[in-house]
Design brief:
Distance between the termini of chain B: 64 Å
Number of strands of chain A: 4
Helix content of chain B: 40-55%
Shape of chain A: globular
Number of helices of chain B: 7
Radius of gyration of chain A: 25 Å
Largest sheet of chain A: 2 strands, antiparallel
Strand order of the largest sheet of chain B: 3-2-1-5-8
Distance between the termini of chain A: 55 Å
Structural class of chain A: mainly alpha
Shape of chain B: elongated
Low-confidence stretches of chain B: none
CATH superfamily of the largest domain in chain B: Cupredoxins -  blue copper proteins
Structural class of chain B: alpha+beta
Strand content of chain A: under 5%
Largest interface: A-B, 87 and 91 residues
Radius of gyration of chain B: 28 Å
CATH class of the largest domain in chain B: Mainly Beta
Strand order of the largest sheet of chain A: 1-2
Order of helices and strands of chain B: HHHEEEEEEEEEEHHEEHH
Low-confidence stretches of chain A: none
Strand content of chain B: 15-25%
Oligomer: heterodimer
Number of helices of chain A: 20
CATH topology of the largest domain in chain B: Immunoglobulin-like
Number of strands of chain B: 12
Number of domains of chain B: 2
């Protein structure tokens, strides 16, 4: 399939897949430049890129995460096309190329889709839910976004610049060492995730400080909305889990770039990687699911018109799941041969997580019971989550039974399981959150009819794609294979799965069309409270003015706004405050710092010490520059902010 | 209503009959049987939970949906319900305990059976990118991508790796175990029926991970004893020494012997080719016939990406034919 030219006696080979990727990048670049110039939006774009305001940063997270979602979804379609038939030869995606696709799909979906989309929603909603004007460290927040984007760009650009990582998102050593993976792919992986990981840790600190320090008067911990609670617990998990990944990636990078042998099979110990990776990796699963739990809690209460059943138990379950999440990582390593004692202990610890998760499911059901259920799109996604996650949780318990896991492990059963929890939990949660908070972000509603099409196609496609995978696993299909024989009896299941994947792709297309259509014809949100909401964010106009709450609210109960609407005049009581309101100024420093990191990463990827040192000097200079910057805040009077708001509307 | 249930019924039957043929649920040995029983038990418990919760879900969402009559209802505040909350905390714990007991028992019993090694038959398995080496330590026989075992005999596999991590999996005989470089894992398997069982590498090991497969031939004890003693004596059988055979042998000696042995009792860096003539597949990837063999020798990577073997494009068609003819006679 390669295009070959012979010019001046030399043969040039252009692999067709790389050309296609290059062309699509070029096309998108040209289109972006054209439209920015045509509609004179360069200044506008620059304002967004340098804005430290939490809503804008949140929307940028959502946009970038959404773009990566399309890319990683395309990878998924390629994977499914290659696996559709026995001994299939789809384009070039066999062997190494297939491994690259599969790795990019997993890495991107976890680090650059699921996490940033959740962090984006956290950025948009958490400060509003606790009555804050912004996050505690707006500058750091913008920096976090740019670090994430840099990491994502590195991993994504690898395909056209030397080859993507090809060892699965878990990058087990020694396969991931330079002896067995000599190309630059794994270097893109270590650097990309390391840089994005720094951003994620900064975000976690930011949200912890914000939630501890910036709550409105009277908003005690036990009055916080569940999404804020889940963001709080998630931030704690990130803070403790990500350092393990940082160390693991550092060891891998040292081994690859500087010739150490921590993880090698002969002089070091490859199991160090597995332990460190899963000490991070298992909490990571809960980092992905807990914010989704929070979204479901908020959406289900709103659209059932009822308070959350057993609020205290819900919070307790959240914290308990987070805690137990650190105690179970060996269940990813049951077949490593660590012995029956550790396998048995970790099997039991894993099973125990089912208890708090069960509590949550029952509490959601009993929130619905006795309520008035309105089937808006956000609610449909939340409802579909319950049975889907139930299946994912059930297969999770099945996997925890260690002897049975010897059969499931690294088979398609596991692939089915984790897609049921991550797509069925996190992605459904993200869609629910996006439909739910969309009017708050943009001031108009997404279309409900298109939303229902999106929902039904996505949910049906999801089950058609992933349910057969359990059966493939039980029929002996290992994970991460690019082909199977006719005689393996896997053909029809795989074909069904591929059809499902295309149904899901159609659903995502409808979602994109919904955004486009609603942008032009969508219903305007004039009240700021389109869903008859319960929490503080729905007391603000959509979109909220800079500084959100010009007069900060007073909180006396859970679901404060609902309470005011039922028992008061429907408006929040506020604190009388004088003096100026300080808001963070825009800054371009994070953009430049990330650009330096991006460029100097290539020094590590292609082993150029000069570029490496230039990067170090550049970063240190930026840090010095930052330490001399002390005018990050601007004071506004209340009337100024009010006028600005009116000007906008 | 009855008629509407027919497709559901039909699908259930189809699913259950389909499940029976799934390899992990159609096992041929006691290790896999233990795992199968645990899988069925856990599936049963989880199905029960699913049916209960799913029914509650359907009933609640349907019963409490917004209808024109209920449009203006404001549900009253419900704090919680102690009794219910205790119930859905305790009942799952009980269900989990029912699952936990056989889990712990199974974990230890499978591990114990791997400890008692006295008098058990031992085979050393070495994983290579992308092929399997099986050594019968007592008889000095080496096989590649196939292993012969007697039925009704526990066999201890000593698992090692030559390069990256692989994982040894024969679904019909039992769960998998990793091959870690720098260490040895033990896995006891036990076939209770004769037959040929598919084996696979379950841990991503590189470009041809999907093609790293082997076959387990479980045969009767008598047949096994006869087979292994035959192989231990070597295969120095000089068939009617035709010209082509001699030529092929010469080509093999000059081109292949540096990496491949052709005798069961020899060891080599690459796969031992003894027995390749009777195998169904070349390198467990393509059907074994003359045309494929010639193509394989010319360009093995076109079948098995990332394979270490170089292509022998310089061999003439005639030479390839002689070589493949020679190989087809290695039995």
């Amino acid at each position: 399939m390669d295009i070959k030219y012979t010019i001046f006696g030399r043969e040039f080979v252009f692999p067709s897949d790389i050309i296609a990727a290059d062309l699509s990048i070029l096309l998108m670049g040209i289109l972006a430049v054209f439209f920015l110039t045509r509609y004179r939006k360069w200044k506008y774009a620059w304002d967004w890129m340098t804005s430290t305001h939490h809503t804008k940063v949140g929307i940028m997270y959502l946009a970038a995460g959404g773009a990566f979602f399309l890319r990683a979804g395309l990878d998924a379609l390629i994977i499914r096309l290659q696996l559709a038939l026995p001994e299939n030869q789809f384009w070039v995606f066999q062997g190494e190329k297939y491994n690259q696709m599969m790795t990019t799909h997993g890495t991107t979906m976890i680090f650059f889709v699921a996490m940033p989309l959740l962090i984006g929603l956290m950025n948009v909603a958490v400060p509003l839910q606790i009555g804050a004007r912004d996050l505690a460290f707006p500058y750091v927040n913008l920096l976090s976004f740019w670090l994430f984007l840099t990491g994502g760009a590195l991993v994504n650009v690898s395909f056209v610049l030397g080859g993507s990582p090809s060892t699965g998102w878990t990058a087990y050593s020694p396969l991931s060492l330079d002896t067995f993976s000599p190309g630059p792919g794994l270097d893109y992986y270590t650097l990309g995730i390391q840089i994005a990981g720094i951003g994620t840790m900064l975000t976690a600190i930011n949200f912890l400080v914000t939630i501890i320090r910036k709550r409105a008067k009277g908003m005690t911990f036990m009055r916080m909305p569940l999404f804020t609670w889940s963001s709080f617990v998630t931030s704690i998990l990130i803070l403790f889990a990500f350092p393990a990944l940082t160390i693991a990636l550092l060891l891998l990078m040292m081994d690859r770039v500087y010739g150490t042998a921590f993880l090698s099979g002969t002089d070091g110990n490859p199991l160090i990687w597995q332990h460190l990776f899963w000490i991070f990796g298992h909490p990571e699963v809960y980092i992905l699911i807990l914010p989704a739990f929070g979204i479901f809690s908020d959406v289900i209460t709103t659209f059932s018109r009822k308070n959350l059943f057993a609020y205290g138990a819900m919070v307790f379950a959240l914290v308990l799941i987070g805690f137990l999440g650190f105690m179970v990582w060996i269940h990813h390593m049951f077949t490593v041969g660590l012995g029956p004692i550790s396998n048995a202990i970790f099997a039991l610890a894993t099973m125990s997580i089912a208890v708090p998760t069960g509590i949550k499911i029952f509490n959601w059901l009993f929130t619905i019971r006795g309520g008035v259920v309105r089937f808006k799109t956000a609610m449909l996604f939340s409802l579909a989550f319950i049975p889907t996650f139930l299946i994912g949780g059930a297969t999770g318990v099945m996997l925890s039974a260690a002897p049975a896991d010897y059969q499931y492990h690294d088979s398609y059963f596991v692939v089915g399981h984790f897609h049921y929890v991550i797509v069925g939990g996190t992605i459904l949660g993200i869609f629910a959150g996006v439909y739910y908070w969309w009017p708050k972000m943009f001031g108009f509603l997404l279309n409900e009819v298109l939303g229902r099409w999106h929902f039904w196609l996505f949910t049906i496609g999801f089950h058609v794609t992933f349910f057969p995978m359990h059966l493939m696993g039980l029929n002996g299909m290992p994970r991460r294979v690019y082909t199977y024989f006719e005689s393996d009896g896997l053909g029809s299941l795989n074909l069904i799965s591929t059809i499902g994947a295309f149904i899901m792709a159609a659903a995502v297309m409808i979602f994109l069309f919904n955004i486009y259509w609603s942008l032009r014809h969508g219903e305007k949100d004039t009240t700021g409270d389109p869903w008859d909401g319960r929490t503080l964010e729905w007391a603000l106009p959509s979109p909220p003015p800079d500084g959100n709450f010009i007069d900060r609210p007073v909180v006396t109960t859970i679901d404060q706004l609902w309470n005011e609407k039922r028992n008061g005049n429907g408006r929040l009581r506020t604190v009388k405050e004088d003096g100026p309101i300080y808001l963070s100024k825009p800054t371009a420093q994070p953009v430049f710092l990330s650009a330096i990191l991006f460029c100097s990463s290539f020094g590590f990827i292609f082993y150029q010490p000069l570029i490496q040192w230039a990067g170090v000097v550049g970063v240190v200079c930026m840090l010095i520059l930052r330490s001399f910057k002390d005018d990050s805040w601007k004071a506004y009077t209340r009337s100024e902010l009010r006028d600005e708001k009116e000007e906008k509307s | 209503m009855r008629h509407q249930l027919y497709p559901v019924f039909f699908l259930t039957v189809l699913l259950l009959s389909g499940c029976k043929s799934l390899q992990v649920l159609d096992t041929k040995g006691p290790v896999a049987k233990l795992q199968e029983n645990l899988i069925l038990l856990s599936t049963g418990i989880m199905l029960l939970v699913f049916i209960i919760v799913f029914s509650m879900f359907v009933i609640f969402t349907w019963k409490y949906r917004e209808t024109p009559q209920r449009r203006d209802i404001i549900p009253s505040y419900v704090k919680g319900n102690k009794k219910l909350e205790i119930a859905w905390t305790v009942i799952p714990i009980v269900l989990l305990l029912i699952l936990a007991v056989p889990t712990v028992q199974g974990t230890f019993s499978l591990a114990d059976s791997q400890k008692e090694q006295d008098g058990k038959m031992e085979i050393t398995v070495t994983g290579h990118q992308y092929w399997w080496e099986f050594e019968y330590n007592d008889q000095g026989v080496t096989l590649s991508n196939e292993v012969w075992i007697p039925v009704d005999t526990p066999v201890v596999f000593n698992l090692k790796s030559d390069d990256v991590i692989h994982s040894f999996w024969v679904p019909r005989l039992g769960g998998k175990k990793d091959l870690n470089p720098g260490g040895t894992n033990r896995l006891t398997l036990h076939a209770s029926e004769t037959g040929v069982y598919e084996g696979k590498c379950a841990e991503l090991c590189g470009a041809s991970h999907s093609l790293m497969r082997f076959k387990v031939h479980a045969v009767s004890k008598e047949r096994y004893d006869q087979w292994i003693s035959e192989k231990a004596e070597g295969t120095a059988r000089e068939t009617a020494a035709s010209d082509s055979y001699e030529k092929g042998k010469k080509l093999f000696t000059s081109n292949c012997l540096s990496c491949h042995a052709a005798d069961y009792t020899d060891k080599s860096e690459g796969p031992n080719l003894a027995g390749i003539g009777r195998k169904e597949m070349i390198a467990s990837v393509v059907p074994n016939n003359e045309q494929n063999m010639k193509k394989w020798i010319e360009d093995p990577k076109s079948f098995k990406p990332g394979a270490e073997m170089p292509g022998f494009k310089e061999l003439s068609d005639e030479e390839l034919e002689a070589l493949s003819n020679y190989l087809s006679q290695l039995e």
